[in-house]
Design a protein that fits this description.
The complex is a heterodimer of chains A (117) and B (218). Chain A has 117 residues and is mostly helical. Chain A is 71% helix and 0% strand. In chain B, a hairpin with a 5-residue loop joins strand 5 and strand 6 (147-158). The longest helix of chain B has 16 residues, at 3-18. Classes of the chains: A mainly alpha (117), B alpha/beta (218).
Amino acid sequence: MRVLALIAAGSAVALAGCATSPPTLYTWGSYEELIYVSHADPGKVAVEEQVQIMEKDYQQARAANKRMPPGWHAHLAHLYYQLGRADQVRQELLTEKADFPESAVFVDRLLANLEKR
Amino acid sequence: MSLRRLVQLALCCAALSTLGACQTVQPYDYTNFHAHAPRSILVLPPLNQTTHVEGTYGYLSTVTFQVAELGYYVFPVEVVDQFFQENGMPTAGEMHQVPPGRVFEITGADAVMFITLEEYGTTYKVIDSSTVVKVHAKLVDTRTQLLIWEGQGAAVQSSSGGSSNILAKLIAAAVSQAINSSVDRAHGVSRLANANLFRSKNIGLPYGPYSPQYNTPY
């Protein structure tokens, strides 16, 4: 047991030492894991709960002055859409576009589709 | 040199070789890449060639992290998947048939990434089990349809065996914990396969515009 603990400690140090991992560019929170869970075990985490988790991640990122990853706000918009919260869908899509201008063509298309429905 | 330092060095090299960084390989020819270096990448759901249907999203839900952290705008994979499904392309196979020029029109993406999932899952043997994820990725410029990068990534995690397996578990644990991962072993191993696919020296995906290391090699 002690040997295992030592190996674990040594490996952790070694990994930390050689990876020289810089801090991540973004706060990832549960973005990818929510996508995973929603497919692997549909209904396990209700959409309302997914939204709450993402909103909480966002508060923490704001507090740490860190950015959300590309696609994050559009994904949250997608969750709001499932809850019928159209104003928040719009707001999140506009935030995606403001944060990442590369998304403009796609976001504008999604906004146009939203108006049609 | 202390024993502790030696152990650290040995483990360090083992960890690196697990990630494929210690291998000497023929460098990738980045001529096309540099001529059409993308800012934004649209990753389609993978073409799943395995018998494990859960692999499609088990893998897709791990790919954004590496590509975005390399410095690219990555389109929201779930929203993109839903969008294509609602527009008459219910499967990854059909999405992969969409011409890159059409992807550009619809989304404005500079490049589209076509990933094939070649292996995904856990094989159980008498005293042991082994989880394997193997992928092949092609990055295509949407304006010219030129292939600008391609690569392969694989990772294996065994339930028993030598120190390299323990290390693989530790890497998986470190990566997973940082992003709050969960249960399916191949889902976790996908993250190792992605590190191997995108981050291998001389053959990986170069840094993108949002990275502080943009325009520097690995």
